[in-house]
Amino acid sequence: MNVIEVNGLSKHFGSFKAVDDITFDVKKGEIFGFLGANGAGKTTAMRMLTGLLVATSGNATVAGYDVNREPERVKARIGYMSQKFSLYEDLTVAENVTLFGGIYGLSDEQIREKLLEMEPASLKSLVGSLPLGWKQKVSFATAMLHDPAIVFLDEPTGGVDPITRRQFWNRLYEEADRGVTLFVTTHYMDEAEYCDRIAMMVDGRIAAIGTPAELKSNLNAASMDEVFVKLARGGVRS
After folding, report:
1. Are 60 and 69 in contact (CB under 8 A)?
2. How far is residue 137's CA from residue 126's CA, in Å, rounded to a whole number?
């Protein structure tokens, strides 16, 4: 079952084609990697899929809703975690959870239940005082508050140490096993190996798509680092 379907999606800014006629699908419970060099079009594509940016042409559905015509319905069915850990650093963990729980439409009782699932010691801490790894955990927990069908993660492990990154991916596996779909961008090619499938963006287009094993085989590459180099070096954007 596909929960994301993208057909000929494009976004132009004047004569600049930030995203140029991309087509792919993502299955329920899949960890889908969306990779590419800076400027390849990943963020623009993600903004269209999350209902934050209207496409120039083409169409896409996320959780069964059209991203151009039903962006609010899309937003209600997805979670989002950015590389900046979009939390209020001058609020405590509990205050952030309460705030975002209200935004997502959770009842007071549901918010209390979510708070009980979190580490008690962290709830009274200001988010700004937490180590980076803890911020990451809180940010992901906040993105999952309303039990979304799909979670978009934009470079969620940037700056995090390898052990914490591995622990974070273990959590992603748990959510995927529950049927949650995870759409991930990352600059760490070892993390690309953890994805079920990968789409590699180059200059606004999808240059290759498949499992890590398929991409390595097709490009005669020993690692995803080598896959990235072989594909990305053909790009002209900086």
Report:
1. no
2. 14
- Contacts for 97 with CB less than 8 Å, ≥ 6 apart: 111, 114, 115, 118, 123, 141, 142, 145
CA–CA separation, 201 vs 194, rounded Å?
A: 18
- pLDDT tens-digit profile of 105-161? 899 999 999 999 888 878 999 998 988 888 888 899 999 999 999 999 998 888 778
Q: What local confidence, expressed as pLDDT, does residue 162 receive?
A: 85
Task: Annotate the chain with three-state secondary structure.
Answer: CEEEEEEEEEEEECCEEEEEEEEEEEECCCEEEEEECCCCCHHHHHHHHCCCCCCCEEEEEECCEECCCCHHHHHHHEEEECCCCCCCCCCEHHHHHHHHHHHCCCCHHHHHHHHHCCCHHHCCCEHHHCCHHHHHHHHHHHHCCCCCCEEEEECCCCCCCHHHHHHHHHHHHHHHHCCCEEEEECCCHHHHCCCCEEEEEECCEEEEEECHHHHHHHCCCCCHHHHHHHHHCCCCCC
Q: Which residues contact 112 (CB under 8 A, 6 or more apart)?
A: none
**Residue keyed to tokens 């499938």:** 197
- Return the closest-CA partner of residue 89 out of 122, 141, 129, 143: 129
Surface-to-core class of residue 100, CB atoms within 10 Å of its CB (0-12 exposed, 13-18 middle, 19+ buried): buried
CB-side neighbour CA atoms (13 Å) of 194? 21
